[in-house]
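Entry 14. Ran structure prediction on the chain below.
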Amino acid sequence: MPMPCGTMNSATRRYLRRFFVALLLYILFIIAAVVAFARYHPTGPLAYALAVLPALGIIGQMAAFGLYLAEEKDEFQRTLGILSMIWGIGATLSVTVTWGFLEKFVHLRHLDLTLVYPLYCVLTGISYGLLQTRYK
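Output, structure tokens:
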């Protein structure tokens, strides 16, 4: 998710606090899941719960940004955040659908779906930077 720039207003501080809590949870959850599957080989409902656990941290990161957009009073900063997300989504969809057709027709290696969110974050961040440059 893009990092709001400019002054560190209360909406930005709350966003950063929420984002980093969610990031910490993601790190803890992914470590817990990897260790649990490597050592204990869980099955059944426990395996499903452990497999889903890291996604909760990612969902928390997205929720943190959504809350930031709802709380940000500066319309320009909100617009930059929304536009960067739209460009990030479009770029992510373009990359993944292109990759999918390459997988299907020329047997390119399968894209691990856990890489889609990091790809989205990178592309959204690039979009945010380009949009900031455009409006300076």
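The helical segments are 10-40, 44-71, 75-106, 116-134. Will compare against last week's run tomorrow.
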